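INFO  loader      accepted 1 record
INFO  loader      residues=419
INFO  predictor   begin
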Amino acid sequence: MTSLGPEERRLRREAKRRRIRRRRIGALAFVAFASLAFVAGLVASGALGGREAAAAGSTTTETTGTQTSETTTAATTTAATTTAATTTAATTTRATTTKAETPPRGRLGSGSAVTLAFGGDVHFEGIVRSKLDASPTSVMAAIAPVFKKADLAMVNLETTVSYRGAPTPGKTYTFRAPPSAFRALKAGNVDLATVANNHGIDYGMTSFLDTLRYAKSYRFPLVGGGRNAAQAYAPYRTTIKGQRIAILGASQVIDSNLISSWTAGVGKPGIASAYDVGRLTAAVRAARKKADTVVVYLHFGEERHPCPSSMQVSIARSLIAAGADIVVGSHAHQQQGGGRLGRAFVDYGLGNFVWYSQNSSASTTTGVLEVTVTGRRIDGYKWVPARIVGGSPTPLSGSARSAGLASWRGLRGCTSLSR
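INFO  predictor   done
INFO  writer      dumping C-alpha cells
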C-alpha cells in the first residue's frame, strides 16, 4: 500500500470533516421540519385555532409609536408548506392569518408619570459667544442639574448654526452660531430644541440647511423645521417609561416679508408656520393618534408684553381642541403667565434663557418650567426661578428664589388660566 503524503492526508481530513458537518446539518433539518409539521398538523386539526393559532406565530412590529400585530411569519409559512407536502388525504392546509386586537390605551397611557422641562430662547451672541468659544460645556453648566432631573428637556434654539451665508437684508437682528452650539446644549442636558422662530433662517437657506446637517452630526433632534413641510410639521417622538411622547414646534412670528420664503413647503426647506392654524392643528391631530402625550412649543406673542395677546390665546385653545396636552412658548423676551386651561397646561412665555441682553430686569428674569404628566393627565407643574448672569441661566436660592416664584405666579392674573 502506497503511503499518503502530508498534503493528501490534509485533504482527506478536510473531506471527512465536511461529511460529518453535512450529516449533522441534515439531522437538525429533519428535527426542525418534523416539529413544524407537527405544529401545522395541530392547526389543521383545530387543536390550535382562531387567535391562539395567530398568537403562536405572531410578530409584533412598532412603527412611529403604533404597534401592529402580524401573524404571517416565516415559521408559519414553512409549517404550512411542510403540511401541504405531507398530507395523505391530498388536502391542502392553509394557515389562517388574523390581526390580533390590541386594547385601546386610556388617558393615562402606560400609567407612569413623566416630567418634561422647558427653557426659553437660546442663542450664542455677544458674551454668550465668548463663553461658547472658550468652553462649550460652561455655557449652561449652572442650569444643567435642573434639566438633568427631568425625563426630557427642551428649549427654543433662536439662531442659525452655520459658518456660511449672509445676513438677511433689512433685518435689525440676525443670529448665527458655530456647530459647537450643539455641544453646549448637550452638555446642558438639553434633549430637544425647536428651530421654528424668527431667527432660524437669518443667514439664508444654505445656513438653515447647515443647521439641520450639524444637528444630525451631533445626534441632536430638532423640531419645527426641515427640508420640506412634512419634516417641518412632523413631531419628535420618543417613548419614556412606556409613555409615547410627541412634540411639535411652530412659529407665529416671522417678518411679514419673509413668511412665504421661510415657510416650509412641498420640496421646499423652511420652518413650520403657525400662521396657517389649520395646517398646524392637522399636524397635532395626526400626532394625537399615536401618542399618549402631545406637546406643542410655539414662538408667539408680542415683545415686551407680560400678558398674552388675543392671537396667543386663540391658537392655544385651537391646539388644545385638536389634541395638545401641553402648549408652551416664547418670543416676548420676558416671562408671561402659565397655568391650566381645562385639562391641558399652557405657558404663554418662558422668556429669555441663554441670552446676551442685560438691559433690563425683565429680560434677565428666567427659569425652567417643569410639567409632570401621566398620559393626558397633568399631574402637576413647577417653576424653577433663575436669573441670566453673564448670558447663562443661573438658578436662584433663598429670598431671591421666593421673589421669583411670587413674580411668576402673579403673571397668571391676565391669562384666564387657572392654578
